[in-house]
Amino acid sequence: MTSIEVDTPHGVAKAELHCAPEGVAVLLLGHGAGGGIDAPDLVAAARAAHAADLHVALVQQPYRVAGRRAPAPAGHLDASWLAVAEYLDEHWFAGLPMVFGGRSTGARVACRTASAGQAVAVLCLAFPVVPPGRPDRNRQAELDAVDVATLVVQGERDPFGRPAAGHHREVVLVPGDHSLKADVDAVSRAVGEWLARVLRPLVV
């Protein structure tokens, strides 16, 4: 494991890199609004990706590096994420396909930046479709805007709702709620199977 710092337009971000022996692609994973990169579902997804011979970068947004819990504005999150992706592409993983991913808020960032960052696929863990009690803040459109292969792993009892499947989008339900920690093996299995399938045509 290697820890690096990356200057972004909104402060210093950090990335924890887990490099695979060969490394057929790279999976970038972002954390939730008030959480960190040690969330159980992120660890499970990273483990599955590493087993599938992907490099993994667990990305900590500048506001969390600075010790703040309240998330930065969406535009700041997106710009910082893209800065980290660009840095990794230039200095660590040149030319390799990139999969953007994350949990909750991190999943939203991955969706919003997938096109600009030329991600080949998007992994969403616990995508927060509708905040409890706020039906006016439905985020399904962020998922619908992604035009590459997308996997959503969602807890069966997630109070933030259940995303709809779509043309490029698979939705896998696993036991548990928004934390996705009730059955991390199910999370890991879903991610590993999906990565193997969507990346096969890109790395042959």
UniProtKB/TrEMBL annotation:
Lineage: superkingdom: Bacteria
InterPro entries: AB_hydrolase_fold, KANL3/Tex30_Abhydrolase, NSL3/Tex30
Pfam families xrefs: Abhydrolase_11
Residues annotated as domain KANL3/Tex30 alpha/beta hydrolase-like: 25-181
SUPFAM superfamilies: alpha/beta-Hydrolases (SSF53474)
Coiled coil (residue ranges): none
Name assigned to this protein: KANL3/Tex30 alpha/beta hydrolase-like domain-containing protein
